[in-house]
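User: Hi! I'm working on a homework problem where we have to compare a predicted structure to a textbook description. Could you give me the structure for the chain below?
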Amino acid sequence: MPASLSPDLLRAFVTVVECGGFSAAAERLHRGQSAISLQIQRLEDRLGVKLLNRSPRFVTLTNDGEALLDQARKILSLHDALAARFDRKEVSGTVRLGAPEDFATTHLPGVLARFAREYPHVTLEVTCELTLKLVELFNAGGLDLALVKREPGTGVEGLRVWREPLVWAGLESTHDIPSPLPLVVSPSPCVYRARATHALDAAGRTWRVAYSCTSLAGTHAAVRAGLGITVLPKDMVPADLSVLNDEALGLPDLHDTEMALIEAPQIPAAAQRLREAIVRELEHGVA
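Assistant: Happy to help. Predicted C-alpha coordinates:
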Protein backbone atom coordinates (compact mmCIF):
# COMPACT_ATOMS: atom_id res chain seq x y z
CA MET A 1 0.00 0.00 0.00
CA PRO A 2 1.30 3.53 -0.78
CA ALA A 3 2.12 5.79 2.15
CA SER A 4 -0.82 7.77 3.55
CA LEU A 5 0.11 11.46 3.61
CA SER A 6 -1.62 13.73 6.11
CA PRO A 7 -2.41 17.25 4.84
CA ASP A 8 -0.94 18.55 8.12
CA LEU A 9 2.43 17.01 7.24
CA LEU A 10 2.31 18.41 3.71
CA ARG A 11 1.32 21.83 5.04
CA ALA A 12 4.25 21.84 7.45
CA PHE A 13 6.62 20.95 4.59
CA VAL A 14 5.28 23.63 2.20
CA THR A 15 5.31 26.27 4.94
CA VAL A 16 8.92 25.54 5.90
CA VAL A 17 9.92 25.94 2.24
CA GLU A 18 7.91 29.16 1.78
CA CYS A 19 9.21 30.70 5.02
CA GLY A 20 12.79 29.56 4.47
CA GLY A 21 13.12 27.88 7.87
CA PHE A 22 11.50 26.08 10.78
CA SER A 23 11.23 29.05 13.13
CA ALA A 24 9.24 31.24 10.74
CA ALA A 25 7.09 28.28 9.70
CA ALA A 26 6.28 27.51 13.33
CA GLU A 27 5.24 31.12 13.89
CA ARG A 28 2.93 31.12 10.88
CA LEU A 29 1.32 27.79 11.81
CA HIS A 30 1.12 28.73 15.50
CA ARG A 31 3.05 25.62 16.50
CA GLY A 32 6.28 24.99 18.33
CA GLN A 33 9.45 24.69 16.26
CA SER A 34 10.03 21.18 17.59
CA ALA A 35 6.53 20.17 16.49
CA ILE A 36 7.20 21.38 12.93
CA SER A 37 10.55 19.56 12.88
CA LEU A 38 8.81 16.37 14.02
CA GLN A 39 6.19 16.69 11.26
CA ILE A 40 8.91 17.02 8.61
CA GLN A 41 10.67 13.97 10.05
CA ARG A 42 7.43 11.97 9.94
CA LEU A 43 6.83 12.99 6.33
CA GLU A 44 10.36 11.96 5.34
CA ASP A 45 9.89 8.64 7.17
CA ARG A 46 6.58 8.00 5.40
CA LEU A 47 8.13 8.64 2.00
CA GLY A 48 11.48 7.06 2.77
CA VAL A 49 13.42 10.01 1.35
CA LYS A 50 15.14 13.16 2.58
CA LEU A 51 13.22 16.28 1.57
CA LEU A 52 15.25 19.13 3.09
CA ASN A 53 18.91 19.93 3.58
CA ARG A 54 19.17 21.62 6.98
CA SER A 55 21.79 24.12 8.13
CA PRO A 56 21.88 26.52 11.11
CA ARG A 57 20.87 29.47 8.89
CA PHE A 58 18.55 28.10 6.19
CA VAL A 59 17.01 25.05 4.57
CA THR A 60 17.16 23.97 0.93
CA LEU A 61 15.22 21.41 -1.05
CA THR A 62 16.70 18.09 -2.07
CA ASN A 63 15.80 16.66 -5.48
CA ASP A 64 13.02 14.63 -3.86
CA GLY A 65 11.84 17.76 -2.03
CA GLU A 66 11.60 19.66 -5.31
CA ALA A 67 9.59 16.81 -6.82
CA LEU A 68 7.18 16.85 -3.87
CA LEU A 69 6.70 20.62 -3.49
CA ASP A 70 4.48 21.34 -6.50
CA GLN A 71 2.34 18.24 -5.92
CA ALA A 72 1.99 19.07 -2.22
CA ARG A 73 0.75 22.55 -3.08
CA LYS A 74 -1.84 21.13 -5.47
CA ILE A 75 -3.06 18.64 -2.86
CA LEU A 76 -3.35 21.38 -0.21
CA SER A 77 -5.17 23.67 -2.64
CA LEU A 78 -7.77 20.99 -3.37
CA HIS A 79 -7.98 20.04 0.31
CA ASP A 80 -8.54 23.63 1.44
CA ALA A 81 -11.10 24.34 -1.27
CA LEU A 82 -13.05 21.20 -0.33
CA ALA A 83 -12.87 21.98 3.39
CA ALA A 84 -14.07 25.54 2.78
CA ARG A 85 -16.93 24.30 0.60
CA PHE A 86 -18.35 22.12 3.38
CA ASP A 87 -17.25 24.14 6.40
CA ARG A 88 -20.38 24.61 8.51
CA LYS A 89 -18.94 27.53 10.46
CA GLU A 90 -19.62 30.64 8.38
CA VAL A 91 -16.52 32.76 7.84
CA SER A 92 -17.35 36.44 8.34
CA GLY A 93 -15.85 39.70 9.50
CA THR A 94 -13.66 42.40 7.97
CA VAL A 95 -10.22 41.99 6.43
CA ARG A 96 -7.98 45.05 6.09
CA LEU A 97 -5.65 44.60 3.12
CA GLY A 98 -3.04 47.04 1.89
CA ALA A 99 -1.41 47.03 -1.56
CA PRO A 100 0.34 49.41 -3.97
CA GLU A 101 -2.12 50.87 -6.47
CA ASP A 102 -0.40 49.48 -9.56
CA PHE A 103 -0.38 45.92 -8.20
CA ALA A 104 -3.90 46.19 -6.76
CA THR A 105 -5.41 47.29 -10.06
CA THR A 106 -3.50 44.81 -12.22
CA HIS A 107 -3.12 41.55 -10.29
CA LEU A 108 -5.56 41.60 -7.38
CA PRO A 109 -9.03 42.04 -8.98
CA GLY A 110 -9.30 38.36 -9.97
CA VAL A 111 -8.05 37.14 -6.60
CA LEU A 112 -10.44 39.36 -4.64
CA ALA A 113 -13.41 38.57 -6.89
CA ARG A 114 -12.97 34.83 -6.40
CA PHE A 115 -12.49 35.30 -2.67
CA ALA A 116 -15.66 37.41 -2.41
CA ARG A 117 -17.67 34.71 -4.20
CA GLU A 118 -16.31 32.02 -1.89
CA TYR A 119 -16.77 34.07 1.30
CA PRO A 120 -19.76 36.37 0.71
CA HIS A 121 -20.01 37.36 4.39
CA VAL A 122 -16.49 38.82 4.54
CA THR A 123 -16.02 42.55 4.06
CA LEU A 124 -12.81 43.61 2.30
CA GLU A 125 -11.24 46.98 3.12
CA VAL A 126 -8.43 47.62 0.62
CA THR A 127 -6.00 50.49 1.10
CA CYS A 128 -3.83 51.51 -1.86
CA GLU A 129 -0.69 53.44 -0.94
CA LEU A 130 3.05 53.63 -1.52
CA THR A 131 4.92 50.70 0.04
CA LEU A 132 6.60 52.63 2.85
CA LYS A 133 3.30 54.19 3.86
CA LEU A 134 1.69 50.74 3.83
CA VAL A 135 4.45 49.47 6.12
CA GLU A 136 3.87 52.40 8.48
CA LEU A 137 0.14 51.69 8.57
CA PHE A 138 0.77 47.98 9.07
CA ASN A 139 3.21 48.60 11.94
CA ALA A 140 0.63 50.88 13.57
CA GLY A 141 -1.90 48.03 13.57
CA GLY A 142 -4.03 49.42 10.75
CA LEU A 143 -3.79 46.41 8.42
CA ASP A 144 -4.23 42.66 8.75
CA LEU A 145 -2.34 41.89 5.53
CA ALA A 146 -0.15 43.99 3.26
CA LEU A 147 1.46 43.39 -0.11
CA VAL A 148 4.66 45.43 -0.24
CA LYS A 149 7.36 46.00 -2.81
CA ARG A 150 10.88 45.09 -1.75
CA GLU A 151 14.36 44.78 -3.17
CA PRO A 152 15.26 41.09 -3.76
CA GLY A 153 17.65 39.74 -1.16
CA THR A 154 17.29 42.65 1.28
CA GLY A 155 15.94 40.45 4.06
CA VAL A 156 12.72 42.46 4.39
CA GLU A 157 10.20 40.35 6.30
CA GLY A 158 7.37 38.67 4.43
CA LEU A 159 6.63 35.88 2.00
CA ARG A 160 7.52 36.51 -1.63
CA VAL A 161 4.40 36.04 -3.76
CA TRP A 162 5.41 37.77 -6.99
CA ARG A 163 8.51 38.57 -8.97
CA GLU A 164 8.92 40.12 -12.40
CA PRO A 165 11.30 42.38 -14.35
CA LEU A 166 11.20 46.14 -14.02
CA VAL A 167 11.41 48.00 -17.34
CA TRP A 168 11.59 51.52 -18.70
CA ALA A 169 8.30 52.51 -20.35
CA GLY A 170 7.43 55.38 -22.65
CA LEU A 171 5.87 56.35 -25.95
CA GLU A 172 6.52 54.11 -28.93
CA SER A 173 7.94 57.15 -30.75
CA THR A 174 10.63 57.60 -28.08
CA HIS A 175 13.91 57.22 -29.97
CA ASP A 176 16.13 60.00 -28.66
CA ILE A 177 15.75 60.95 -24.99
CA PRO A 178 17.15 64.37 -23.98
CA SER A 179 19.67 64.88 -21.21
CA PRO A 180 19.01 65.16 -18.36
CA LEU A 181 16.59 62.25 -18.64
CA PRO A 182 13.00 63.37 -17.84
CA LEU A 183 11.37 60.98 -15.34
CA VAL A 184 7.71 60.45 -14.50
CA VAL A 185 7.69 58.93 -11.02
CA SER A 186 5.82 58.72 -7.74
CA PRO A 187 6.87 61.01 -4.87
CA SER A 188 9.48 59.76 -2.42
CA PRO A 189 9.53 57.32 -0.79
CA CYS A 190 8.92 54.96 -3.72
CA VAL A 191 10.77 51.71 -4.48
CA TYR A 192 10.55 52.15 -8.26
CA ARG A 193 11.69 55.78 -8.10
CA ALA A 194 14.67 54.82 -5.95
CA ARG A 195 15.54 51.92 -8.24
CA ALA A 196 15.48 54.19 -11.31
CA THR A 197 17.51 57.05 -9.86
CA HIS A 198 20.12 54.77 -8.25
CA ALA A 199 20.57 52.87 -11.52
CA LEU A 200 20.96 56.10 -13.48
CA ASP A 201 23.43 57.51 -10.95
CA ALA A 202 25.48 54.30 -11.11
CA ALA A 203 25.52 54.52 -14.90
CA GLY A 204 26.55 58.18 -14.83
CA ARG A 205 23.35 59.26 -16.57
CA THR A 206 21.91 62.63 -15.55
CA TRP A 207 18.18 62.84 -14.82
CA ARG A 208 15.45 65.15 -13.57
CA VAL A 209 11.95 64.59 -12.22
CA ALA A 210 9.67 66.00 -14.90
CA TYR A 211 6.41 64.89 -13.30
CA SER A 212 5.56 63.42 -9.89
CA CYS A 213 2.19 61.87 -9.05
CA THR A 214 0.89 59.30 -6.55
CA SER A 215 -1.77 58.07 -8.99
CA LEU A 216 -0.97 55.31 -11.47
CA ALA A 217 -3.50 56.81 -13.91
CA GLY A 218 -1.76 60.18 -13.56
CA THR A 219 1.62 58.59 -14.27
CA HIS A 220 0.29 56.90 -17.41
CA ALA A 221 -1.29 60.17 -18.58
CA ALA A 222 1.97 62.10 -18.13
CA VAL A 223 3.94 59.51 -20.10
CA ARG A 224 1.31 59.52 -22.86
CA ALA A 225 1.61 63.29 -23.00
CA GLY A 226 5.33 62.94 -23.68
CA LEU A 227 6.50 64.49 -20.40
CA GLY A 228 9.03 61.73 -19.79
CA ILE A 229 9.58 58.03 -19.25
CA THR A 230 8.72 55.91 -16.23
CA VAL A 231 9.52 52.60 -14.56
CA LEU A 232 6.95 49.79 -14.40
CA PRO A 233 6.84 46.03 -13.92
CA LYS A 234 6.88 44.48 -17.39
CA ASP A 235 3.38 43.00 -17.11
CA MET A 236 1.94 46.37 -16.03
CA VAL A 237 2.96 48.36 -19.11
CA PRO A 238 -0.28 49.53 -20.83
CA ALA A 239 -0.88 48.47 -24.42
CA ASP A 240 -0.53 52.03 -25.71
CA LEU A 241 2.92 52.47 -24.12
CA SER A 242 6.13 50.66 -25.05
CA VAL A 243 8.89 48.84 -23.21
CA LEU A 244 11.95 50.88 -24.17
CA ASN A 245 15.06 49.19 -25.47
CA ASP A 246 17.64 49.66 -22.71
CA GLU A 247 20.73 49.27 -24.88
CA ALA A 248 19.58 51.40 -27.79
CA LEU A 249 18.69 54.32 -25.53
CA GLY A 250 21.55 53.86 -23.10
CA LEU A 251 19.26 53.09 -20.18
CA PRO A 252 20.59 50.96 -17.30
CA ASP A 253 19.11 47.56 -16.47
CA LEU A 254 16.61 47.68 -13.60
CA HIS A 255 16.55 43.97 -12.69
CA ASP A 256 13.53 42.32 -11.04
CA THR A 257 11.03 43.57 -8.52
CA GLU A 258 9.49 41.50 -5.73
CA MET A 259 6.16 41.66 -3.96
CA ALA A 260 6.04 40.26 -0.42
CA LEU A 261 3.01 39.49 1.75
CA ILE A 262 3.26 40.48 5.41
CA GLU A 263 0.67 39.58 8.04
CA ALA A 264 -0.18 40.83 11.50
CA PRO A 265 0.07 38.43 14.44
CA GLN A 266 -3.07 36.44 15.30
CA ILE A 267 -5.10 37.55 12.30
CA PRO A 268 -8.79 36.50 12.24
CA ALA A 269 -10.03 33.48 10.29
CA ALA A 270 -11.25 35.61 7.38
CA ALA A 271 -7.80 37.17 6.99
CA GLN A 272 -6.19 33.73 7.15
CA ARG A 273 -8.40 32.57 4.27
CA LEU A 274 -7.53 35.65 2.21
CA ARG A 275 -3.82 35.14 2.90
CA GLU A 276 -4.09 31.54 1.67
CA ALA A 277 -5.93 32.67 -1.47
CA ILE A 278 -3.36 35.36 -2.29
CA VAL A 279 -0.40 33.01 -1.80
CA ARG A 280 -2.03 30.20 -3.77
CA GLU A 281 -3.20 32.26 -6.72
CA LEU A 282 -0.31 34.70 -7.11
CA GLU A 283 2.42 32.07 -6.74
CA HIS A 284 0.80 29.93 -9.41
CA GLY A 285 -0.02 32.79 -11.75
CA VAL A 286 -3.81 32.39 -11.51
CA ALA A 287 -4.40 36.08 -10.96
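For your comparison, note the following. The domain at 7-85 is CATH 1.10.10.10 (Arc Repressor Mutant, subunit A). Residues 178 and 207 are 9 Å apart (CA to CA). Good luck with the assignment!
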